[in-house]
Every structure is written in structure tokens, then in C-alpha cells.
């Protein structure tokens, strides 16, 4: 079996399509080599070796060694150097991890591997640069000691142990602070000695001198890092399966640190924050690539390269164009210039904000680089919500005080209490506080805190620092490199513009402009929301709004599945229609009684213990409902509305607190004891499986009669007023055909009466929810009565999994952690289990009633993966909350392309 794929000198074993096997980095290095770009030679150890490694007690396949040797030979041939050569310039390599997608938490780079006590002397001789050679060796021992041998900070230590050795050396030797670049070759040589002693002291082992031992050790560290905590946290957040594994890339070193004609940089072919078509990135003269991303020295904008190295800059611009043309997407690149010669070390599709992604896609269709279908596929549906996220309220922000500026690294507006440490941010966020994570610079250790925070502010680091990339991808607001922010971790304070802010004080940041404000600032809706919902003309002129509208036009062109909304009020219906919904898929009629005094009438109805009392209460409810329905039909402008009859889980509606009970007793003018008694009588151990849904109407048909009358009278009135009401009456929680028959008979009976009374024909239909496994399994019988099905996947999930939707929070975390379920099944449909019930019901429904209208109205209707599943099984529509309508439309279009 082939475990090692080489590349170099315009030839490569692999190519860009082989990301699963070679990881993203390895596949693209092969691809760049193939298209003739200057890539130092190297090879990839495949992800299958990672899988083997974990399946076989952390050992390697026996045939690997020979393949590694062949890989190294290939590099040696191209470079003209030998690995481990102690007499001539030795071949040194960089070792990097490479999963399918780049992943924070994975082992970083080890540079200069291959140096030892002999080869370092050869390097001195070949370069005649003693300082450079020993500096490389010193750095190598430090990186290798840290990530491979685990010489790291222990509990109670303030600094990295290698840094402590350096500090002590400087102090002992120079008795003052000097910078690293002042260290002489002899100093570096001494540090090498001390570093090795440190390794021996901490690990009990001698630092490996044999380059082959070094290489195997480094590969093992990459594979080992696949299972470290940070990588696991990241995978969980992004639902990356642990089986994927990582690849290892070994590449011949090129040196950006040989002097002032060398340097390293990272860049995006277009601006990943706002989408503008401009070359965007940073570089450092006389530095290795790691120095740029580490955020230790603040780098220069890449455009400045034009002044200092015009030839390399021109070459880089050519590479930029070639890459975009070839990969047909914005690329994120790493490069090194060694003595005026350009080398490409990496390319990948650039991570981007939702706004930038939207602009890239729109621009690239215009530039004829991609088709509109590709543009639709390029915008991740779940990221679309970022575009709808709030911005600062314009009038408030004018009054706010700007106290610092930094780089705009993740757009949007965030306001919150500041915390200086990831763990404390998590705790505060769990308490419901809005948190801003404020750090000197963020490192992968801060990931949990970044996830918990509304926004991230750093004092140091560029727009391509790891922190900025991660923030952008998560859609977090981020301002980085705000040099005016001075942080004291021990005192838990930030001094900005002469003002001291303590932990828990409010700050606000604008990640679109890079501005930091004192205090709390009110946020306002995004231009897209203002343009769509409030018909704001200014907002409609913005490029963001126009690009969004264009994207949605393309979506409509592609979509088969239509998108409705779950709405209980005319206002919600109007919003959803502005977002492009084509009707209501679920009105939860019990929700119409949450407001004001209405809950009293509802409670009166629930608590009634005889028919007469119940009918009195129902008579109070009827006009409320009729008016509401009228308003909804009016807002819908002829679009259909699925009205679901009462389904009040009793525990949500009963007055439990003593004051509520007293209050209700007063209003109803009955003794409180009577209410207490009735509440006690109605108490259920398992209310989610209790007296809910159609069970209510089966026992008390008068409830169904009242609701049918309210809907149908409103429809008749609306139709007369010219609004073309199309009610689809929906009976909940049906498991038996007979349940539905009884309820439907009542609806038809009332409909006949109302049509006669109002002298108007009403275009209504009656169907059912499929949300009980028995209903799904007997859907053929149920379809004899039901004119449509709507999948109530909240209850269907709860009943199929036997997991209470109200109580699963206490254990579901452990389920995702242990990968029993990939995602929360109440958020993203369990396609294998619940999905099977959906499929069965679709098939059986179609058998009885070919072409039966099929929808979904559970929470899953707004989840991109679930929407794609719904498309696959052939549903007619999905229904979700108004603000998720754009997300569902995009996902539906993507499913259809
Ligand atoms: C469902 O069960 O999926 C549903 C939409 O109904 P409810 O959430 O009101 O139970
Ligand atoms: Mg339900």
C-alpha cells in the first residue's frame, strides 16, 4: 500500500482532489507543484497511516520506513543536498500536520529538522554564517523539545522552560535585557547545550541526534496531536469525525531568515474580512513563517513588499492570479523569500466572513470565474446568520467614545463584559452574561473562551494571526492588534486611553472597522434586515444588501423545496414573507394565549371541570382567535397557513405558583382551593407524553369545535374582504386514524355551518402532524383522512429516541462528547433513526394519496443539514422561524444543485 506521496520539480504523486487521503495542505502542495509554481519538494504521509497508528497501539505500518526513505531520496535529488549530511549543506526539513481542513489544536510546525551536532557544523561551513546555523539549531531543539518531547510549562511555572533558560543565560552573561537578535553564535551554541541539558533533566532522555529518529518522532507527535484536548474541542464544535485522521507533511526547508533579502509572509488573494478584491496580507523581513502568524513581531502589510522587494512582489502578484484562476476561489497562502527567490509553502481556500463570502461569490460570477450555481454552493447556509447579525445603533455609536483602534478581523458589533481569561469567560457566559474576551494575543488554548464570547479583542497580532482566522470562521466579532490596549493579567485590568477597565466592565467593539469603544452600546439590525423588514432605502443601497438579494434570486432559481415559516402573529408572518417565505407551516394556536389577559381565559378553559364552564371559557377564547387568524390571513396575502389546533402541554399553562393561583382565583371569582385542587388533579408525571394534542379534542370535542369556528369564520371574513385565505387545519399528535377521523368530522361539520352562515365558500383543507412513531408507521391509513402531513420532528425525535425534549439537556452533552450522536438530535435531525420514520411515512402517505403535500415544522426545518435531508426524501416544504428563512432557502437551493 502507498503511504507516502511525493511532490517536487513540477511533478507530484497526488493532486488537489485527494484531500481525504493527503489532507488539505498536502493535496494543495501537490496541486501547486503540478501547475508549475515554485514549491520546495517534499512528501505527505497519508491520513491512513494516522488511522493505522491509532488502530495499532500507536505503531506504524511495517512498509512505511522504506517509503519514507524513498520520499527523502526524492527530495535529496531535487535539492542536491543530503539528509543528515555532515560534510556538505545538509537537507533540512519542515514537518507539519495536515488534516482535511486546517485545525487549531493540531501540532504546529517543526522547522530545521535534521540538524544535530554534526550537521550544524556542515551548515556553518556551507553558509559561512555561524550565527544563522546555530540559531537554526537552537530553534529546532526548542520547537522539538516543546511539541515532540513535551518539555512544557508545569503547574506553577510562569514562563515556558526554554524561555526561562534564555532569560537566565542573558542575565548571567550580559546582566541586562537584550533582544534575541543580539545573541552571538557562541551564545546560541551555549544555549543549544543548555537546552539539551533541560531536555535531559525534564524527560530523562537524550535529545535525538539521528535525523531519522527525529523524523519518526515528529511524525508521531503530529499523529498524537490529533487526539489532544484542543483538537477534540475543535472537532466537536465543527462536527469533524475523529476517524478522519491527519496527514503529515515533510518539506525541504527554505529560509526566510538568512538576512535582509529574505522574508516570510501570509496573504489572502482578496480581503477575507470585507470581500474587497485587493491583495491582503502581511510579511516580515528576515523571519521564518512562524514568526508572522505567532503575532510576536507585528508584521508589515504585504503591499509594502512592492517597495522593498519589487521583483518578488511582482512574482507574487502573478502567483496570486494563477492561484485564483486555477482554484477558482480566494486563496490563503504562505510564502517565503530566500535571498530574493520566492517559494510557495501553502495554499488553501481562504476562510472568510459571511459578508466577504457573499461578495466573493457575487464578484466571481461577474468575473465569469464561477457559475451562479457555484456561488450558491459557496455560501455556507449556517454562516448566513452572520449577515443578519446586528450592527451598532448608528445614533448611539456617534455618542460613544472611541478609546482604541485595532485591525478589523471579524465583522459585526459586539458589546459585553470584559474577561481576560478563557475559563472565566466560559463561566460568565454560562451565567448568561455577554462576554468580550480580551487577550494580549490569543492562542489555541483560548478556543473555549472564544466560543463562549460575543467578541474578541486582542492587543497584538495581525489580521492573519491564528486568532483572527478562527474568530472569522466562528462568525465572532473580532478586533485584533489594538496596540493601545494594555493588559495586566494579574490585576485583571486593561488600561486603554488612560482609563482602567476591570474584569466585568463593559466595552464595545466594531469588528468591521476595528474600533474599540468604552461602555455598552446598543446594537441595531443589519442592513439586510433593515432593507427587507423595515424597507429602509439607505440600507437597500448598500452592496451587502444588493449581493444578498442577488444570492436569494439565484436560490429561487434552483430550489425545489419551498420554505414556509412558523409564525403565531401577523408581524412574524410579515417578517418571514419579507425573507421570502411562501406561507406559514405552523401556527401554534396555544401560543396565541401567552400574551396579557388571554392566558387567564386559557387557564379557565383548562381548569374547567364541567362542560358548561368549559364552554363559557371557550366562548371567551373564540373572538381572540378569530381576530388573530384574520390578521394572519391578511398578512399572508394569499399564501397558505397551516393552523395547528391546540396542543398545550398542561404543565406549561397551569398556574403553579401560589400568587398566580390566588391571582387567577380573584379574576375568576372562585376559591383558590378549588384551583389548587384542580391543578393537583391535572398534575402529570410525564406531561410531554400526557394530555396533549388531539387527546384534548378527543375528550373535549367542544374545544375542536371552537377552534374550527374561529379559523373558518376568520377565513370567511378574510375571503369576503378579498384576502384569499387558505387555511390548512392541522390536527396534532395523531397516532391512530380514528383519532383524526373524529376531529376531521367536527371540522367539516363546522365548515358546512360557517359557509352556510357566511354565504361564502372557504378553500380549506384538513391534515395532520406526523409526530408519533405510530402515526408514521401507519401513515397509509392516516392518509385516507389526512389531506396533508407535516412532520413534527420535535415530538417525533422525542418519541422515537425516548428522550424528553425538556430534559435531554442534562445528558446530551455526554452523548455528543462520546460521539454517540454527532449533533444534538433536537437541532439536527437524526437521519438514520427519526429520518427512517419520515421516509416510511412519506412512502406510505404517497401510496394512499399520490402527491400528498408533505412538510416539516419541527425546529429541524431551519437546520441546513436537515433541510438537505428533507429535500432528499421529497418533502414539499420546510417551515422554520422567520429569521432562519434565509438559511433554509439557501440550504434548500444547495440541496437542489
Ligand atoms: C413538533 O413536535 O415538531 C412541533 C412542531 O410541534 P410542537 O413543537 O409544538 O410540539
Ligand atoms: Mg409537536
From TrEMBL:
Catalytic reaction(s) noted: pyruvate + phosphate + ATP = phosphoenolpyruvate + AMP + diphosphate + H(+)
Pfam families: PEP-utilizers, PEP-utilizers_C, PPDK_N
UniProt: substrate binding residues: 588, 644, 771, 792-795
Domain of life per record: Bacteria
Keyword vocabulary terms for this entry: ATP-binding, Kinase, Magnesium, Metal-binding, Nucleotide-binding, Pyruvate, Transferase
Molecular function via GO: ATP binding; kinase activity; metal ion binding; pyruvate, phosphate dikinase activity
Function: Catalyzes the reversible phosphorylation of pyruvate and phosphate.
PANTHER family: PHOSPHOENOLPYRUVATE DIKINASE-RELATED, PYRUVATE, PHOSPHATE DIKINASE 1, CHLOROPLASTIC
Protein name, entry field: Pyruvate, phosphate dikinase
Amino acid at each position: 500500500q502507498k503511504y507516502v506521496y511525493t511532490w517536487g520539480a513540477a511533478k507530484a504523486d497526488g493532486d488537489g482532489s485527494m484531500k481525504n487521503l493527503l489532507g488539505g495542505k498536502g493535496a494543495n502542495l501537490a496541486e501547486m507543484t503540478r501547475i508549475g509554481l515554485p514549491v520546495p519538494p517534499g512528501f505527505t504521509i497519508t491520513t491512513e497511516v494516522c488511522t493505522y497508528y491509532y488502530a495499532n497501539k500507536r505503531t506504524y505500518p511495517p512498509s512505511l520506513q522504506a517509503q519514507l526513505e524513498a520520499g527523502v531520496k526524492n527530495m535529496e535529488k531535487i535539492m542536491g543536498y543530503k539528509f543528515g549530511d555532515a560534510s556538505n549543506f545538509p537537507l533540512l526539513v519542515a514537518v507539519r500536520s495536515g488534516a482535511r481542513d486546517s485545525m487549531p489544536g493540531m501540532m504546529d510546525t517543526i522547522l530545521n529538522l535534521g540538524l544535530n551536532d554534526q550537521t550544524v557544523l556542515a551548515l556553518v561551513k556551507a553558509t559561512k554564517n555561524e550565527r544563522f546555523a546555530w540559531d537554526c539549531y537552537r530553534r529546532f531543539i526548542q520547537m522539538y523539545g516543546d511539541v515532540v518531547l513535551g518539555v512544557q510549562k508545569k503547574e506553577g511555572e510562569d514562563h515556558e522552560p526554554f524561555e526561562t533558560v534564555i532569560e537566565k543565560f542573558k542575565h548571567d552573561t550580559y546582566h541586562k535585557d537584550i533582544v534575541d537578535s543580539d545573541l552571538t553564535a557562541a551564545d546560541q551554541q551555549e544555549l543549544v547545550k543548555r537546552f539539551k541539558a533541560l531536555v535531559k533533566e525534564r524527560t530523562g532522555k537524550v535529545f535525538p541526534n539521528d535525523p531519522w529518529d527525529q523524523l519518526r518522532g515528529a511524525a508521531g507527535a503530529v499523529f498524537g496531536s490529533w487526539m489532544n484536548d484542543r483538537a477534540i474541542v475543535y472537532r466537536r464544535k465543527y462536527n469533524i469525525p475523529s476517524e478522519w485522521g491527519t496527514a503529515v507533511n515533510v518539506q525541504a526547508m527554505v529560509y526566510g531568515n538568512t538576512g535582509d533579502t529574505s522574508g516570510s509572509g501570509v496573504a489572502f488573494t482578496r480581503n477575507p474580512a470585507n470581500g474587497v478584491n485587493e491583495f491582503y496580507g502581511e510579511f516580515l523581513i528576515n523571519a521564518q513563517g512562524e514568526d508572522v502568524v505567532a503575532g510576536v513581531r507585528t508584521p508589515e502589510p504585504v503591499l509594502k513588499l512592492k517597495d522593498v522587494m519589487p521583483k518578488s512582489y511582482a512574482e507574487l502578484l502573478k502567483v496570486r492570479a494563477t492561484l485564483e484562476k486555477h482554484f477558482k476561489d480566494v486563496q490563503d497562502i504562505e510564502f517565503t523569500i530566500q535571498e530574493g527567490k520566492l517559494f510557495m509553502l501553502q495554499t488553501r481556500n481562504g476562510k472568510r466572513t459571511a459578508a466577504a463570502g457573499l461578495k466573493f461569490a457575487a464578484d466571481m460570477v461577474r468575473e465569469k470565474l464561477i457559475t451562479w450555481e457555484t456561488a450558491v454552493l459557496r455560501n455556507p447556509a449556517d454562516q448566513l446568520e452572520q449577515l443578519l447579525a446586528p450592527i451598532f445603533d448608528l445614533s448611539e455609536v456617534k455618542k460613544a467614545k472611541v478609546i482604541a483602534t485595532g485591525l478589523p478581523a471579524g465583522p459585526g458589533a459586539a458589546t459585553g463584559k470584559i474577561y481576560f481569561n478563557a475559563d472565566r469567560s466560559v463561566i460568565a457566559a454560562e451565567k448568561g452574561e455577554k462576554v468580550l474576551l480580551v487577550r494580549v494575543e490569543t492562542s489555541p488554548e483560548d478556543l473555549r473562551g472564544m466560543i463562549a464570547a460575543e467578541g474578541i479583542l486582542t492587543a497584538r497580532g495581525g489580521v492573519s494571526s491564528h486568532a483572527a482566522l478562527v474568530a472569522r470562521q466562528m462568525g465572532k466579532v473580532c478586533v485584533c492588534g489594538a496596540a493601545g490596549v494594555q493588559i495586566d493579567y494579574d490585576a485583571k485590568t486593561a488600561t486603554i486611553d488612560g482609563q482602567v477597565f476591570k474584569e466585568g466592565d463593559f466595552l464595545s467593539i466594531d469588528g468591521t472597522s476595528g474600533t474599540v469603544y468604552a461602555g455598552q452600546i446598543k446594537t441595531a439590525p443589519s442592513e439586510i434586515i433593515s432593507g427587507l423588514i423595515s424597507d429602509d432605502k439607505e440600507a437597500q443601497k448598500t452592496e451587502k444588501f444588493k449581493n444578498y438579494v442577488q444570492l436569494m434570486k439565484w436560490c429561487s432559481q434552483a430550489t425545489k423545496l419551498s420554505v414556509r415559516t412558523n409564525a403565531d402573529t401577523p408581524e412574524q408572518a410579515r417578517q418571514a414573507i419579507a425573507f421570502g417565505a411562501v406561507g406559514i407551516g405552523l401556527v401554534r394556536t396555544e401560543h396565541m394565549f401567552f400574551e396579557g389577559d388571554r392566558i387567564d381565559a386559557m387557564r379557565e378553559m383548562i381548569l374547567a371541570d364541567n362542560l358548561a364552564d368549559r364552554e363559557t371559557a371557550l366562548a371567551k377564547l373564540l373572538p381572540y382567535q378569530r381576530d388573530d387568524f384574520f390578521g394572519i390571513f391578511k398578512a399572508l396575502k394569499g399564501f397558505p397557513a397551516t393552523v395547528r389546533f391546540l396542543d398545550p402541554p398542561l404543565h406549561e399553562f397551569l398556574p403553579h405558583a401560589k400568587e398566580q393561583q390566588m391571582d387567577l382565583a380573584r379574576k375568576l371569582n372562585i376559591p383558590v382551593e378549588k384551583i389548587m385542587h384542580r391543578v393537583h388533579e391535572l398534575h402529570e408525571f410525564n406531561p410531554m407524553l400526557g394530555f396533549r394534542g388531539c387527546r384534548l379534542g378527543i375528550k373535549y370535542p367542544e374545544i375542536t369545535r371552537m377552534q374550527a369556528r374561529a379559523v373558518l369564520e376568520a377565513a370567511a371574513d378574510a375571503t369576503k374582504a378579498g384576502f384569499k385565505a387558505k387555511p390548512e387545519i392541522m390536527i396534532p399528535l395523531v397516532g391512530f386514524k380514528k383519532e383524526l377521523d373524529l376531529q376531521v368530522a367536527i371540522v367539516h361539520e363546522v365548515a358546512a355551518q360557517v359557509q352556510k352562515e357566511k354565504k361564502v365558500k372557504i378553500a380549506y383543507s384538513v391534515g395532520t402532524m406526523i409526530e408519533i412513531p405510530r402515526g408514521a408507521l401507519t401513515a397509509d391509513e392516516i392518509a385516507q383522512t389526512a389531506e396533508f402531513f407535516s412532520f413534527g420532528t420535535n415530538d417525533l425525535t422525542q418519541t422515537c429516541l425516548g428522550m424528553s425534549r425538556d430534559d435531554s439537556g442534562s445528558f446530551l452533552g455526554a452523548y455528543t462528547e462520546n460521539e454517540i450522536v454527532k449533533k444534538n438530535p433536537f437541532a439536527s435531525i437524526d437521519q438514520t433513526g427519526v429520518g427512517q420514520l419520515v421516509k416510511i411515512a412519506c412512502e406510505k402517505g404517497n401510496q394512499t394519496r399520490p402527491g400528498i403535500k408533505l412538510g416539516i415544522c419541527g425546529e429541524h426545518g431551519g437546520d441546513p443539514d436537515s433541510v438537505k435531508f428533507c429535500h432528499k426524501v421529497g418533502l414539499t416544504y420546510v417551515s422554520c422561524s422567520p429569521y432562519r428563512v434565509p438559511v433554509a432557502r439557501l440550504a434548500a437551493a444547495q440541496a437542489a444543485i
